[in-house]
Amino acid sequence: MITPSPRSILFVASSLLLAAGLFAQTPPAPKVEIPAPSPTATFKQRVGLTDVEIVYSRPSMKGRKIFGGLEAFGEVWRVGANNATTISFSTPVKFGGKDVPAGKYALFAELGEREWTIILSTAAQQWGAYAYNPKDDVARVTTKVANLGFEIETLLIDLNNVRDDSAAFNIVWESSAVSVPLEVDVVGAVVPQIEAVMASNAEKKPYVESAMFYLDHKLDLKKALAWMDAAIAARPTAYFYIYRKAKVQAAMGDTAGAAATARKSIELAKADKPGPLQSEYVRLNEALLASLK
């Protein structure tokens, strides 16, 4: 056995300390931030009482032919780039007429020249469409492809034509656009709440909001009229309430009653101090009167 001399031990130790010092003095590489080729986007929209969220990566054309080129017809597409696009619903919905429970789903599209089949899959976490399996489908909706007549550089997914109980789900890219109707049961969610509060001993009740909901959704207009009367009894000079009562009467076919109520609203509005609210309700009532002729 050879025992190292103190001199050799000192040399090795010095070398190690020198190397450590050199490494310690090496500055870290500067951070480089590079734009993502397909940046991630999140789209959120409330439809009635349902929250919808879409998360997707947005590729751009960049001079490429997309459909029938980069994305082949007859194949399943991830509807974006990178991870499969996801869509979430906070309540059950109808997607293209198909019942879909609340939850988070992967969004795929089976591409055709004239039609696409839009697919919602329970396998929400996956890269691309490589692991797509039809057994995970919760809804398949076939829809026509519209030709825009012009090009959209970057993929766009959104909801439009938003109403209390419906919206249009849209995918737009290159010169192609598809749309799928989305429906929610807002009446089934709201009416029990209204009926419960109206039957309660609550001191303040949402008479006006409830009446307008019943009016907008063509529900029991006699109840809507009674609620407007209750609201007006508490605020007899509220011409903005009186205008809404006239709308309910018009929807019930009481043209004469609606006209008289609208005139009363105008009279009270003109007695108010001049301002935007006064002008707005004079204009609205005059338009309502014109529609009754």
Structure characterization notes:
35% of the residues lie in helices and 30% in strands. With 293 residues, the chain is of the alpha+beta class. Helix 3 (207-216) packs antiparallel against helix 4 (221-234), helix 5 (239-251) runs parallel beside helix 7 (276-292) and helix 6 (255-271) runs antiparallel to helix 7 (276-292). It folds into two domains: 40-183, no CATH class; 186-292, Tetratricopeptide repeat domain (Serine Threonine Protein Phosphatase 5, Tetratricopeptide repeat, Alpha Horseshoe), CATH 1.25.40.10. The model is unreliable at 9-13 (pLDDT under 50). It has seven helices and eleven strands.
* Biggest sheet layout: 7 strands, antiparallel
Q: Give start-end ranges of low-pLDDT stretches.
A: 9-13
Q: Write down the overall geometry.
A: elongated
Work out the number of β strands. 11
Order of helices and strands: HEEEEEEEEEEEHHHHHH
Question: What's the helix count?
Answer: 7
- The separation of the N and C termini measures 117 Å
Average of the residue pLDDT scores = 92
Strand content: 25-35%
Portion of residues in helices?
A: 25-40%
Number of domains: 2
